[in-house]
Amino acid sequence: LTVSCQTRTFTGTFKILNQNSKKLLTVAGASLADNALINQFQSNGGLNQVWYLYLEGPYEKHTYSLVNVKSGKALDNPGSSKTAGTQMQQFTYNGGANQLFVITPVADGTLYLKNVASGLYLDIAGASTDNGAHLNQFPFTGGSNQRFYFIPYNL
Predict the structure, then answer these.
(1) Average pLDDT over residues 134-149
(2) Cα-flanking dihedrals φ and ψ of residue 91, to 5°?
(3) Would you say the pTM of this structure is higher than 0.90?
(4) Which of 103, 147, 90 is nearest to 123 (CA)?
(5) 51-57 and 7-18 as β-strands: parallel, antiparallel, unpaired?
(6) How far apart are the C-alpha atoms of 135 and 123, rounded to whole Å?
């Protein structure tokens, strides 16, 4: 008999800022729907730019899920895609590996986020600094478009 137990611990509320673009991870159009796409946008004060961070277990250390404050939906790798360039979306939380991210700190205070299902890293497409640029997954490059600051946010 095998019994698995998943625990979920709330760890804080954050805005997530890309190091390269200085723009925030944003649910496009402040959508409340499953499958709404995630992009970057300049700070606009909307709760679609604010994320709850949950420590997930019993996974490897530093495994988290992110849930958008406005929509209540989780950051999600659609269909557990292993394809580089797949744009991230939001979807109802289900605890799947496609909604889990290993967060690795960097000496400069930024963080890398690796999707558990794909092994690929969150990445602003083409290192764009434009509003609306996609949040994709991509093999590790170490570029500033794959580094994010978590800025504490008080609701």
Answers:
(1) 98
(2) -155, 155
(3) yes
(4) 147
(5) antiparallel
(6) 6
Amino acid letter for position 111: L
CB of 147 closer than 8 Å to CB of 110? yes
From CA 98, how far away is CA 76, in angstroms rounded? 6
Taking alpha carbons only, the member of 79, 86, 74, 149 closest to residue 121 is: 86
In three-state form (DSSP H/G/I as H, E/B as E, the rest C), the secondary structure along the chain is CCCCCCEEEEEEEEEEEECCCCCEEEEHHHCCCCCCEEEEECCCCCHHHCEEEEEEECCCCCEEEEEECCCCCEEECHHHCCCCCCECEEECCCCCHHHCEEEEECCCCCEEEEECCCCCEEEEHHHCCCCCCEEEEECCCCCHHHCEEEEECCC
The rounded Cα 84 to chain-centroid distance in angstroms is 16
Per-residue pLDDT tens for 66-92?
999 999 999 999 999 999 999 999 999
Residue with tokens 């400069």: 108
Q: How far is CA 22 from CA 52, 79, 101, 123, 146, in A?
A: 20, 29, 21, 13, 12
